[in-house]
Amino acid sequence: MEKKAEAPKTGTKKAEKPKTEKPKTEKPKAAKPKAETPSEGTPKYFTYDGKPMVRRGDVIYYGDPKEKYIIIFTINSKKTVGDLEVADSVTIELSTNNGHGKEKIIRKAKREGLYSAFDIGEFWLRDTLENAQA
Question: Which of 66, 94, 110, 133 is deepest in the core (most CB within 10 A)?
Answer without folding.
Answer: 94
